[in-house]
Design brief:
Aspartate Aminotransferase, domain 1; alpha/beta; 19 helices; Aspartate Aminotransferase, domain 2
């Protein structure tokens, strides 16, 4: 105990530590309150370690290093660009869809000054932020009207709250899904104030199941895209037109949560991803889908459909809490213009990545392998390999896209060290590890990305950065 007291006395005073820190040119502009907070937290942690009997060096120099590390971490950006060499196009952990050139230009222009977000330039009156995108979404989907909220979860919540609060919503048991972040359809219904009525079974739901469940308390029929899984085999469910016809007899809206959603229909193998326009054409009253997935824009939840229902949602109290800001709208508008006036398979990165041919991918992998060929003495193996890419983001589950990449195996360091080196490079390079080899899938790589990968591998080969 006496030894602890002596060690506690060795902790420098707060004023002394702040005085020493002020001598560092990197930190001179930081406010005193920040110095004080970091010094107090660091010295308190040292004090608690001493009391706990932990063997830890306590000196002015050691404490200054810890405090400086905290301060530098606070003033340096944590969110940074990374290189996606995983082959997963809509990688949720890596920020999903990269924006198109036009979309980035729109964000930069709007971010740098004021805008007509809610201002009608022609009349000088107050306007609606949704007017900037509603007509564009309607043109692409055939919907009567549209609004945008901060993500698709919010879109589903708003639609249910506005159209079915205190009433029943019919959902097939096979569509009571849970997706990332514990987003469960039954919980969303409960939170929205709607009452869940389950019909059918996990694998089969018939039109008669819906018909038998309709009552005077029914407010809507809800369809939910299964997103990150699919049921195959002995299955059946009514198509949209049948559901719409049934709902119309009772004057009920059909709401469909498309999850990822897509403007252009996508067919890959046995998977057929319908477009929003196709669903609207079937007569579905309200469709919700994501902006930052197959559409290829920034994070947003898009609600498209009949004007009478959209009008109700616009007036709902929840609308203000989940509305999008000007930067999200700018990013979305730029991407929508790409679809309307450009070639999305070329201009929208996500669409381009998903549509890249096997020949193009093999050619890109060949170029990357050639760029790394100068390291032949360092690598045991640097081979072009065929891989399976994924759409990711809950889109087209279990659907692999043939891709190509480079397989790396180093002679002088372990595969784990190689992966860690690439991940901790100046621009982090996120790869896959498979069969004790680092796999660099080229589907999501730009030519600039491949140059960075070459630089990182060369640094490791020369013994730097390990």
């Amino acid at each position: 105990m006496d030894n602890s007291k002596n060690n506690l006395r060795n902790i420098p005073s707060v004023d002394k530590l702040i005085g020493e820190l002020r001598k560092n040119e990197e930190l001179t502009t930081l406010p005193h309150s920040l110095f004080l907070k970091c010094v107090q937290e660091t010295t308190e942690a040292a004090r608690q370690n001493i009391i706990a009997g932990l063997d830890e060096e306590i000196s002015t120099q050691v404490l200054l290093m810890k405090i400086k590390s905290r301060l530098v971490k606070l003033v340096k950006p944590s969110l940074k660009r990374v290189i996606n060499a995983t082959g997963v196009v809509l990688h949720t952990n890596l920020g999903r869809a990269p924006l198109s050139k036009r979309s980035i230009e729109r964000v930069v222009e709007i971010a740098g000054g004021y805008s007509n977000l809610e201002y009608l330039i022609d009349s000088g009156e107050r306007g609606s932020r949704y007017s900037h995108i509603a007509a564009k979404i309607a043109a692409l989907t055939g919907a009567e009207d549209a609004i945008v909220v901060n993500n698709n979860a919010a879109a589903v919540m708003l639609a249910l709250s506005a159209l079915s609060y205190g009433q029943e919503v019919i959902v097939s048991r096979g569509q009571l899904v849970e997706i990332g972040g514990s987003f469960r359809i039954p919980d969303v219904l409960k939170q929205s104030g709607a009452k869940l009525v389950e019909v059918g079974t996990t694998n089969k739901t018939h039109l008669r199941d819906y018909a038998n469940a309709i009552s005077e308390n029914t407010a809507a029929i809800l369809k939910v895209h299964t997103s990150n899984y699919r049921i195959i085999g002995f299955t059946s469910e009514p198509d949209n037109k049948e559901l719409v016809e049934l709902a119309a007899k009772s004057n009920l809206p059909v709401i469909e949560d498309l999850g990822s959603g897509t403007i252009n229909p996508i067919t890959a193998g046995q998977w057929d991803e319908p477009s929003v326009a196709e669903v609207i054409k079937d007569g579905v009253d309200i469709v919700t889908f994501s902006g930052d997935k197959l559409l290829g824009a920034g994070q947003a939840g898009i609600i498209a459909g009949k004007k009478e229902y959209i009008s109700i949602m616009k007036k709902h109290p929840l609308m203000r809490a989940i509305r999008v800001d000007k930067l999200s709208l700018a990013a979305l508008e730029g991407t929508l213009i790409d679809y309307i006036s450009g070639n999305p398979k070329t201009d929208v990165p996500v669409q381009s990545m998903l549509c890249t041919s096997r020949e193009e991918l093999e050619g890109k992998a060949t170029r990357l392998s050639s760029m790394l060929s100068g390291l032949s003495e360092f690598w045991w193996q640097s081979n072009i390999v065929e891989t399976d890419s994924q759409a990711g983001g809950g889109a087209m589950p279990e659907m692999g896209f043939t891709s190509y990449g480079v397989s790396l195996k180093a002679a002088e360091v372990s595969t784990a060290t190689l992966e860690r080196h690439l991940r901790n490079w100046t621009i982090p390079i996120i790869t896959r590890v498979q069969s004790d080899r680092v796999i660099i899938d080229v589907r999501c790589l730009t030519e600039q990305d491949m140059t960075v990968i070459k630089e990182a591998c060369l640094a490791l080969a020369k013994g730097r950065g390990i």
